[in-house]
Specification:
Length: 410
């Protein structure tokens, strides 16, 4: 890849992913024993910095500012090694949790890779790399004492981290029964970590070719960067997919529930306008709008308590069973029929609400102790209310209006 914009694109993508994950940090003061959010953000942030510093244009700038030819080589190697350590630390916490055992394992990983970083710097200092190489440093100095060892140490540490991360994710994936988006994110992470093998193999092959007197530098300057870009994109996507996917799925579900509650909400709003709050809610606050709609539906049901008739409920239950409905669907059909009859009674009765309440109390039908329904139950009621409202809107004197036959799946 001759265009260096790829490095900026990758760095920006990782930083954007870090910003997506960063909101979780605001809860750290309540979860001081959980380092997951910090570690994930550290992986994404450090990865972006590493790819920024690996840009040939930035390499030339850093080398020029420091006055040390190839100063960027140990810098980039150290950043990528630190990122590998953070990835392994993250996987340890993911598998084991924040317990002391996991912390001890994480500290061991960090200590080993910290020593690797120190060794990289020492080997660069005692070696000689006087000719600046921005894109083919690995193969150019493949036979230079100490610099050669620095390159091999970095590649070995990187390969070890890729193998360990891939194996841990595969083992974890086999036992994960959590949210679907977590499993999808793990699949992408496994692919991203596995692609590191292509990156490391390309570099090892190019270096080995130099030792054998051959020129396979294309593997180092063209093939390896392609693997690096691809595995970084998949890795970053794997980290944020559970968060983004969960948010998108939650939003879609909230919108669907909001719309399905519409028929019942609109009918209750017309029948009991006092149950609707006057304070507007922004259209983009879908969770808040859904919460408010559920609350208004519940309040509307409560407002119709004086008009609920046990006879209507009994007749609706008979018709529901005759239509093949059972369980929660039959309960929803009964509730929809009772609400429709209560709305009709309220519209016809005018100011007779007190009299209706008194009559209901005398009948002892328990309407004054109306239980709240959960969100799923309200959705079923709303769907049945919409599809069968005409069949249920009968006068109170004739509560036996027939239900359409056949089960319904709202």
């Amino acid at each position: 890849m001759n265009d260096n914009s790829g490095y900026w694109i990758l760095a920006s993508a990782l930083w954007v992913a870090c910003l997506i994950k960063a909101p979780g940090l605001r809860h750290l003061r309540h979860r001081r024993n959980s380092p997951l959010s910090v570690t994930v953000c550290g992986v994404l942030l450090l990865g972006g910095v590493a790819y920024c510093c690996a840009n040939p244009d930035v390499i030339g700038f850093v080398n020029g500012v420091t006055g040390v030819p190839n100063f960027s080589a140990p810098l980039v190697y150290s950043l990528l090694t630190a990122e590998s350590a953070l990835i392994l630390t993250l996987l340890v916490y993911w598998r084991e949790g924040p317990e002391e055992k996991a912390r001890c394992a994480a500290r061991r990983v960090q200590a080993v890779y910290g020593l690797v970083i120190v060794a990289l710097v020492v080997l660069f200092v005692i070696g000689e790399a006087p000719v600046e190489q921005r894109t083919d440093f690995d193969t150019y100095y493949a036979q230079t004492p100490y610099i050669r060892e620095m390159i091999l140490l970095y590649l070995t540490a990187h390969t070890g981290a890729a193998v360990t991360a891939t194996v841990l994710c595969i083992r974890w994936f086999a036992g994960v029964t959590g949210p679907p988006w977590l499993r999808r994110g793990l699949r992408v992470l496994i692919l991203g970590f596995a692609l590191n093998f292509g990156l490391d193999f390309s570099k090892f092959a190019a270096i080995g070719a130099r030792w054998a007197g051959h020129d396979w530098d294309t593997l180092n300057t063209l093939v390896a960067p392609l693997f690096a870009f691809t595995c970084t994109l998949f890795t970053g996507l794997g980290f944020i997919l559970p968060v983004v996917g969960g948010r998108v799925s939650g939003t879609v579900s909230a919108v669907r529930t909001f719309r399905r509650l519409g028929p019942l909400w609109r009918a209750l709003r017309a029948a009991t306008p006092g149950a609707v709050a006057a304070l507007p809610v922004p259209w983009w606050e879908i969770d808040l709008r859904l919460t408010r709609r559920v609350a208004e539906v519940q309040d509307g049901r409560l407002s119709l308590r004086p008009y609920r008739d046990a006879a209507v409920a009994e007749a609706a239950l008979v018709r529901a069973r005759a239509a093949g409905l059972s369980g929660a669907v039959a309960d929803a059909a009964v509730e929809a029929a009772v609400l429709a009859a209560a709305m009709a009674a309220k519209a016809a009765g005018g100011d007779a609400e007190a009299e209706a309440a008194e009559a209901a109390a005398e009948r002892g039908d328990g309407s004054t102790e109306l239980p709240l329904l959960d969100r799923e139950a309200l959705v079923r009621v709303s769907c049945l209310f919409r599809t069968r409202r005409r069949a249920w809107q009968a006068p109170r004197s004739a509560p036996a209006s027939p239900l359409p036959t056949g089960p319904t799946r709202p």
